[in-house]
Specification:
GO terms for molecular function: aldehyde dehydrogenase (NADP+) activity. It comes from Allocatelliglobosispora scoriae. Keywords: Oxidoreductase. 39% of the residues lie in helices and 17% in strands. With 443 residues, the protein is α/β, with parallel strands linked by helices. The protein folds into 2 domains: 1-214 and 408-441, Aldehyde Dehydrogenase, Chain A, domain 1 (3-Layer(aba) Sandwich), CATH 3.40.605.10; 219-386, 3-Layer(aba) Sandwich (Aldehyde Dehydrogenase, Chain A, domain 2), CATH 3.40.309. It has a 7-stranded mixed sheet, sandwiched between helices. It has a 5-stranded parallel sheet with strand order 5-4-3-6-7, with helices on both faces. A hairpin with a 7-residue loop joins strand 10 and strand 11. The longest helix is centred in the N-terminal third of the chain and has 23 residues, at 54-76. The protein starts with a helix and ends in a 12-residue tail after the last strand.
């Protein structure tokens, strides 16, 4: 199955690469129209298969169609090109101009926690098609019905070879990324899964780029002035428990000052998290891992744990010590509240691994501390959030959804926003090439 899909993508690659930006836009808009036209069926299937709410899935479908249209409009306007030109700079006065060319067929691995926006027709698929690359998507095993439905809506809209859905196990995923015809990989999932793909690609005689989003605890630093403002608690609790704590930008760690105000803030936050009613998790395996996480936390000495009712149970852990096994990405309605002296904030921030996001909650008198903390966090995270929560990733020009290892495998790239296209294209300098011949490079 995999060889046939790759062969078709390789054959289609020159055709899609030759398409103008306007042609790519029309194709992406047509896919968006197909999804929007089947909205009722999609929402029904996804809610039944995942347990996500109708409101959540409806919003995610809007996001999915919106990013298809946005990226299509972006390339139609020529905004994906570098725009670099140096007239007369070459030997003998030749003009040098940059164009961009697609990398070729891309393997995309669908994520489970965003079955639409990071799924079969999610951001990686949209960005690769916009860049002019055929796509083969490896469906997530947790959502076979959703995956097949979305694929059935895309396939009639696009020419043969532009898009394909691959089923199968882990071995088929390795076969896909090691196929010579595949020229890049987009992945959203666990660190273990992303690392396995990276290791497999590195066995190729021609290693290819792997753009893997692999995990983050998204720390939130509550500075002293903010700790005295308890009206911040509700938004943080909602961010921890929203979508049953299964968002890659969920704040899994909240750092508060060890003080009277910090202690009160921690207690109020833990209580608020424990009161939330959540829906079922995406898979039984995730629910079991969440239950095991609670048992691990309960075995720790010197911590306070608040467990809510229901299954899965929302849980907050208040601890004075940064327990390593609690400071790893964990899906579920859970949070670790770390209470440390404010003088230790900078040192602790500097000890963190790479993150997708880092958030600063600051009061009016906290700017001096924030001025020291922000540069440290910029070295650790792809996005810094100020006085808000990290959930909710806007699809726009300026978004950077990425971060240093091990959050991602390519810290300078983003999987969300218009810059996501850049992962699947590369610049080529044309020196002295007649202007009319530059048209062969399509979009």
């Amino acid at each position: 199955m995999i060889p046939a899909l790759v062969s078709a993508a390789v054959e289609a690659a020159p055709v899609l690469a030759s398409w103008t930006g306007a042609q790519r836009r029309d194709a992406l808009h047509a896919v968006a129209d197909a999804l929007a036209g089947a909205a009722d069926e999609i929402i029904k299937v996804v809610t039944e298969e995942t347990g996500l709410t109708v409101a959540r899935v409806t919003g995610e479908l809007d996001r999915t169609t919106g990013q298809l249209r946005l990226l299509g409009d972006f390339v139609a306007a020529g905004r994906h090109r570098t725009g670099r030109s140096s007239p007369g700079a070459g030997l003998g006065g030749a003009d040098i101009t940059q164009v961009v060319v697609p990398l070729g067929p891309v393997a995309v691995f669908a994520a489970s926690n965003f079955p639409l926006a990071f799924g079969v027709c999610g951001g990686d698929t949209a960005a690769a098609l916009a860049a002019g690359c055929p796509v083969i998507v490896k469906a997530h095993p947790a959502q076979p019905v959703t995956s097949q439905l979305i694929a059935s809506l895309i396939e009639p809209v696009l020419p043969a070879g532009f898009f394909a859905l691959a089923d199968g196990d882990i071995a088929s995923g390795i076969e896909l990324v090691t196929s010579p015809g595949i020229k890049a990989v987009g992945f959203t999932g666990s660190f273990r899964g992303g690392k396995a793909l990276i290791d497999a690609v590195n066995t190729r005689p021609d290693p290819i780029p792997v753009f893997a989003e692999m995990g983050s605890i998204n720390p939130v630093f509550v500075l002293p002035g903010a700790a005295a403002e308890l009206d911040r608690v509700a938004a943080l609790a909602a961010a921890v428990t929203g979508s049953c704590g299964q968002l890659c930008t969920k704040p899994g760690l909240i750092v508060v000052p060890r003080s009277d105000e910090g202690d009160i803030f921690a207690g109020e936050l833990a209580t608020a998290v424990g009161r939330v009613e959540v829906h079922r998790m995406l898979t039984e395996g995730m629910a079991a891992a969440h239950a095991e996480w609670i048992r691990t936390a309960a075995d720790k000495v010197g911590i306070e744990i608040i467990v809510g009712s229901g299954s899965p149970s929302p849980v907050a852990v208040i601890t004075p010590v940064a327990e390593p096994d609690l400071l790893e990405e964990h899906f579920g309605p859970s949070v670790v509240v770390l209470s440390i002296p404010v003088e230790s904030f900078l040192k602790f921030a500097g000890s963190l691994e790479g993150q997708l996001t880092a958030t600063v909650q600051a009061g009016a008198d906290d700017h001096e501390l924030a001025a020291s903390l922000l540069p440290v966090l910029a070295g650790k995270a792809g996005r810094i959030v100020w006085n808000a929560v990290p959930t909710g990733v806007a699809v726009c020009d300026a978004m950077l959804h990425g971060g240093p290892w091990p959050a991602t495998s390519a810290s300078a790239s983003t999987s969300v926003g218009t810059a996501a296209i850049e992962r699947f294209q590369r610049p080529v300098a044309l020196q002295g090439v007649p202007e009319e011949l530059t048209l062969v490079f399509g979009g």
